[in-house]
Design a protein that fits this description.
274 residues; alpha+beta; 2,3-Dihydroxybiphenyl 1,2-Dioxygenase, domain 1; 2 domains; 9-stranded mixed sheet; 7 helices; 36% strand; globular
Length: 274
């Protein structure tokens, strides 16, 4: 199967401040939720895609990776020791078994299976159970980016219309932009990860269309041409990295770019809905 964009993990040092900043941009932000491994999140839900603002709530609870296990908490803690920003790209899943089988056939490096559940806090103060199967894979050419698929076991408890209504008209994800010195180096991994063998080479880099949004891989120069000088100059840390997220917004007539240095390490592009 071809996997659409599911969510983006954005690691931040001050979760409350990040939630407030997104709220001021006209997004509805969910209440805080805690993971048993020491991290906490607040979400921005769109139409089938969400932004996961993630902070470290209790470092003592974070397990260290061991053997072939992947520690979500440790990965994001270590990421935050270097910088803030989008740390992980997540694709949708119809089932972890199918994902693992497909990744194995494609020769991707996988970590041990991982599943968890937690209680989610709703806007009215009530709670519901959510649970997920996560399949983590490794791209040796992108060590600073975490990749996994996410199988949502209780989507009816997770997705809420009240969380998907935004003052700024945000509706859905249009594109995730990755920066790389040579975009063509990442063709093989991203094609296998998304299950999409067709990837278009453009004058700016590589473009992979999924059932929900695009994955674009750009060189630094191409990114500057696309997002502008302010966004390009706000890039911090090593590449490859996830540099920007584009969201389609109803009622908007002009494109707006909020550079990463104003928004916790991730450039946000708000574009008119087509």
């Amino acid at each position: 199967m071809v996997r659409g964009l599911d969510h983006l993990v954005v690691a931040v040092k001050d979760l409350e401040a990040a939630g407030r900043a997104y709220s001021e941009l006209g997004f509805t932000v969910t209440p805080e939720n805690r993971h048993p491994w020491g991290t906490a999140n607040r979400l921005v839900q769109l139409d089938g895609f969400f932004i996961e603002l993630l902070g470290v709530a209790d470092p003592a609870l974070i397990p260290e990776p061991s053997g072939n296990s992947f520690s979500f908490g440790a990965f994001n803690r270590d990421f935050l020791n270097k910088r803030e920003g989008a740390s992980m790209l997540v694709l949708e899943s119809q089932g972890a078994v199918a994902d693992r089988s497909g990744f194995h056939r494609s020769g991707l490096q996988m970590f041990d299976p991982f599943s968890f559940d937690r209680m989610a806090n709703l806007a009215d103060g009530s709670t519901v159970k959510v649970a997920f199967d996560l399949t983590f894979v490794r791209d040796p050419l992108s060590p600073e980016i975490g990749y996994f698929t996410c199988h949502n076991k209780y989507p009816e408890n997770f997705w809420k219309p009240a969380f998907q209504s935004h003052v700024n008209g945000a509706k859905g994800v249009r594109s995730v932009y990755l920066l790389a010195a040579d975009p063509s180096d990442h063709h093989e991994f991203l094609s296998a990860f998304a299950g999409q063998r067709e990837m278009r080479a453009t004058s700016l880099g590589l473009e992979l269309q999924t059932p929900r949004g695009r994955i674009s891989v750009l060189s630094p120069r191409a990114y500057q041409l696309l997002a502008g000088e302010a966004a390009a100059s706000s890039v911090r840390g090593e590449i490859p990295q996830i540099a920007a997220l584009e969201i389609a917004c109803s009622g908007r007539t002009a494109l707006e770019v909020i550079p990463a240095d104003r928004l916790f390490g991730l450039t946000l592009i708000l574009s008119p809905e087509e």
